[in-house]
Batch of 4 targets.
Target 1
Amino acid sequence: MQKNIGSVNGLYPMPVTIVGTQVDGRVNWINIAHVGIVAGDMMLSMGKRHHSNIGIRKNKTLSINLLDASMMIEADYVGLVSGNSTDKSEVFDYYKGQLEGAPLIKNAPLVMECEVIDVYETDLHEHFIVRSLNTYVEEDCLDTDGNIDFLKVNPLLFEMSKRRYLSLGDEVGMCWHEGKKMMQETSLR
Ligand SMILES: Cc1cc2nc3c(=O)[nH]c(=O)nc-3n(C[C@H](O)[C@H](O)[C@H](O)COP(=O)(O)O)c2cc1C
């Protein structure tokens, strides 16, 4: 039996992203887990009052960094304290790619330097629609065809209701393939 638990957002887990920005010349990191994919580009739902937003509005650039559980403590820390009052620039070792204002985390399995292509504003949030111009992946997280193997990236995941971090499970099937078994069955009917 299913039970109605009310108006609860059940769309979890989400990948934890660490968004890198530059605000007034200083690198800043923020933990953003309310993310999405919009027509192939990415969306970050960010409270307007965050320090990071100042840099994003000005530069129109940012980085999105996926971390695995080995960097969970640092990931959580940058989601607990604000660049308004704390210098978080040294929390991660980083390097500069091709874009200004989009610092990239060294040793992270997957990092993207992104440009902001649109902003959807609501009362308390800015939803930045961003496009990756360059995506850098640790070589051991690529398969033999050069594609990203997310089981190897093993990104940290976020779940709201229990306020906890999760990691990936196993592959259970192939997309656009498993359903074909049912197509064969229905075509016989
Ligand atoms: C696990 C986790 C997920 C978070 N997800 C979001 C989010 O999706 N959107 C948001 O606006 N803030 C989110 N936050 C809160 C910000 O990371 C936090 O307020 C941060 O300190 C703001 O940093 P800044 O002021 O230096 O930009 C999250 C925090 C944690 C710990």
Target 2
Amino acid sequence: MDIEVCNQCQKLFKVIGHEFPRSGTKEIEPINCPHCGHLQDTLATSGWWEAYPLTEEEVKEYEKNKRP
Ligand SMILES: [Zn+2]
């Protein structure tokens, strides 16, 4: 799981990759911001990407880890 900051609305979201088992081919799939729909990135995967907003707790955790 990756945490991203939207390039457009600056909100945090997490990206979860799903993979089809035994699928050898990779395709470029889009990652869209779940807050504003902005096309954040495209990455190769043998499955697909899902993006979710962070919960308040996850945001706190993220902010905590960001600080030295
Ligand atoms: Zn956004």
Target 3
Amino acid sequence: MLVDTHGHINFAAFQNDAAKVLEQSLAQDIFVIMPGTKYETSRRAVELAATYERGVYAAVGLHPIHLSEKRRVDVLEVQSERVEEKSWMTFETKAEEFDYPVFKELAQNEKTVAIGEVGLDYYYRPKGKARLEAFKEKQKEVLRAQINLALEAHLPVIFHCRVAHDDLLDMLEQEYSDSMPRGVIHSYTGNLEQTKRFLELGFSFGFNGLIFKQVQGLNPQEVISFLPLERIVLETDSPYLKPPQAKGERNEPLNVRYVADEIARIKNISLKDIASATTKNAKTLFRLNQV
Ligand SMILES: [Zn+2]
């Protein structure tokens, strides 16, 4: 079996066939964790997960790109990489404030296994020093609130971190040394130095279809070779980041096997061992056996 620790089946791209996609995944023994990115998608994740006895779980949180003013976001624009455009690949963000009590209620649902995805994203940054500083400070403030929620609810954190690894590391090291949250850095794109710091803090690392690409000069293969197997979890980030071998327009949890294959190749370990280790890692991190 495999665990897709990051698949947005709660997103509009799956509004017509979410149940079918999840049932196909479960039929192949693939569990799915669906992270929210704002209140609506977090609530949808909890509602969807509640319809399954086991194997489908929710994470709830406010993603940093939803803190800014309305703006068109191309979610597939990974650094300079652009893939063919579909309507669900772009959306308009609308600024949302983090409402602690509302998210706390979602976090207390029995199907919620993490706070996420939350974090820092400096990719679409405002111009001007003062505005940039305010933009970063706002993201950090909302992240602190959500880390506090994770600590209060005894849940791990699914971190989104884009072009902001050093700031995230500095914040965690300086402010949480006495109460470090547990968690995973999803869609990991840090360099080796940053990887060592995240490892030291106890975090896991999530990999998806991005590992088939060179991201901004960083080398996912180098990082995966370096990482201990106990700290790796698999994900798809469906509907985005489809591995090159996968068919169809959207990425789906079933494609997590291509990521498992590639990690097996890079680490020169059998697919069976990668599957069992990453499944164990995900079950331990998200306490899936208790849900
Ligand atoms: Zn995501």
Target 4
Amino acid sequence: MTTAPRTWPCAATTCHRDLRDHELDARQTICSPCLSTLHSWLHEIPLQLIVLGGSRQRETTGAAGRAGTRTPPLPGRDDVLNLLGPAAWTSVRDTDGDQTGAVPIVGVLGSWVRIVCEERRWNGPAAPAAETLALWLGRPPVLNWTARQPWAGEMRDEIHGLMRTIWGVTRLRPQRRPVPQPCPRCDSLALVETDHEAYIDCTTCEARFTRGELALGAVIAVAQLDVA
Ligand SMILES: [Zn+2]
Ligand SMILES: [Zn+2]
């Protein structure tokens, strides 16, 4: 029997981190930062749904002809309806990628809920609505189990795609701000923090740090300056 190498990449295609020892020990296939991001996205969906619902509402009232308002046309109204549309609970995966338009939120989330329920023999949420599906997938027991599955990277990438579609319609993307501190790993001033995210990203070397790690990095940097 051969021993697997101790460096193993995170299974998410948009992530370039190698799994750390404690992540490998926990049999994770995606890294903890990706897991944390997935948690943030799933908990952001209920907020985005409020905005999407509002966009759909304004479209219906707009049909009555409010000529007095000079508001520009809402972006992507078809996308809103597609995103909020119903999805067949059974025909879920678009493996050929030939689906046109945005896949409904219920369709994307529902497919992953179904996979989790089938493999784990859990009962899914009582009501298959977008919000309940998102919050169900975002529960820690579900996420922690998900992180150890061979398809966790695919799920992370697919929900990232869903979030990008939602952000494109609502224009409410989590805000990113520069962090005025050099990256502890590559020393460049390229750290960025994002709303709702537990991790701070380096846009140069793609390392991710918790606030605690960054605070420690700052302390070490100051100590090295004192020594020099
Ligand atoms: Zn990752
Ligand atoms: Zn860096």
